[in-house]
Specification:
The protein has 401 residues and is α/β, with parallel strands linked by helices. 32% of the residues lie in helices and 12% in strands. Strand 4, helix 7 (188-203) and strand 5 (211-214) form a beta-alpha-beta unit. Helix 1 crosses helix 10 (289-302). The longest helix is centred in the middle third of the chain and has 16 residues, at 188-203.
Length: 401
């Protein structure tokens, strides 16, 4: 899915919600929909992550790094262990990792040993250039023949040099759609062969420990994503980008649709790979707390390696004021799951104001009732602007002497 706020020139991943909830021994509240992937007992589960992690994507560059701390505070100290960004795909130098903001993410990753860095990497330049299918097919074949290997070796070396040799690389994401140049549909066979070349090039870099995440968008889209799967030897994680769309769909429909959430976990189980959700969030159905609760429960059930909420409008919660109900579900579920658990914040409820008698003048403020208060006449216009009369405690001038 294209996102207008991926400031590419200048895009963190729960779930681990499961791990967090389990660690706190607290149930996730408010799940209006229990995932029924054909009957959970009947659905094969992929290998669970030992320590599922989550985060929220907010921006590509240093602003995204800074937003992680803000969201962590908003969640009462619950740790976001995933940093997630996107390489620009306008040129091959972009894909080689020349973007300055990689240094900011590398520093964030290195600050704690258990953090995870997730990087979306395009498979062709001019990645959002609406390139026609015939040209895409020709470039995929060139890639399969090794023409672009050097660019990916350069990227691998750049990541190792920055101190993030264990980066999770989401290569050619949403390949089953039509948004990106590096898509699969124009020539699936060439796309798979090219993926293998890219992985081989990056794994040839000394010191690397990369994990490669195959992450289609949910559903069939332009081509069934299973037709693009390049093989177990070159895939470490099987991801899925899943937004609340199209309009009018329920969460259960998103589970059961062809190539949907159920098909995803079953496919990963068959290939003995962990799952991930690099992108998820609200979309075509507006502020939908039921969807958010159901996705968090899904993560709790299937324990992905990581998930990353897309946290800006229209998809997000903390950074999107249009989704207050969803934000409450997200926050209440994950709040205070850090080292020192705390209860979610409660909004104090003010008692209703007593009815007023229009025949009586309004009661003055308490300080105006006290004998030590002197009313200062300021004139109708200024008193109207201030919202009422001003009362000054008697003897205030003593403070000046």
């Amino acid at each position: 899915m294209a996102h207008s706020r991926r400031r590419i020139a200048v895009t963190c991943a729960g779930t681990a919600v499961a791990g967090l909830l389990a660690a706190a021994a607290l149930p996730a509240p408010g799940f209006a929909v229990e995932p029924r992937p054909g009957g959970a007992a009947e659905t094969a589960k992929p290998p669970p992550a030992a320590r599922p992690a989550f985060g929220a994507f907010t921006d590509s560059d240093a602003r995204g790094v800074q937003a992680l701390a803000a969201m962590q505070s908003w969640l009462g100290g619950t740790e976001l262990r995933v940093g997630h960004t996107y390489l620009p795909g306008g040129s091959w130098s972009d894909i080689e990792g020349q973007a300055d903001f990689l240094q900011d993410w590398a520093r964030w990753k290195q600050a704690k040993a258990d953090r995870m860095f997730v990087l979306n990497v395009p498979m062709l330049d001019d990645n959002e250039g609406h390139v026609p299918d015939a040209q895409v097919a020709a470039e995929l074949r060139q890639g399969a023949a090794g023409r672009f290997d050097a660019h990916y070796k350069a990227l691998g070396q750049r990541l190792v040099d920055l101190g993030v040799p264990d980066t999770v690389v989401v290569l050619g994401w949403e390949m089953n759609g039509t948004t990106y140049t590096g898509r699969c549909g124009p020539d699936p066979a060439a796309w798979k062969a090219y993926w293998k070349r890219v992985v081989a090039a990056m794994r040839s870099v000394p010191g690397q420990k990369f994990q490669f995440d195959f992450a289609p968008s949910r559903g069939r889209d332009a081509v069934p994503w299973t037709q693009c799967y390049p093989g177990d030897d070159v895939v470490d994680v099987i991801g899925m980008d899943s937004y609340d769309q199209p309009p009018g769909t329920s969460f259960q429909q998103e589970v059961d649709e062809p190539y949907g959430l159920k098909a995803h976990v079953e496919f990963a189980a068959a290939h003995k790979k962990p799952v991930s959700y690099p992108e998820w969030g609200l979309f075509r159905n507006g502020d939908n707390p039921q969807y958010v609760a159901s996705m968090l429960k899904w993560f709790d059930t299937y324990k992905p390696l990581y998930n990353t909420l897309t946290d800006y409008c229209p998809h997000g919660v903390r950074e999107c004021g249009a989704n207050p109900k969803s934000a409450k579900v997200f926050r209440d579920t994950l709040y205070g799951r850090g080292a020192n658990p705390v209860d979610p914040p409660t909004e104090p409820t003010k008692p209703p104001a007593p009815p007023t008698d229009p025949t009586k003048p309004p009661k003055p403020p308490a300080d105006q009732d006290s004998p030590g208060c002197t009313e200062v006449p300021l004139g109708d216009w200024l008193e109207s602007w201030l919202g009422g009369k001003v009362c000054v405690p008697s003897g205030w001038w003593h403070a000046w002497y």
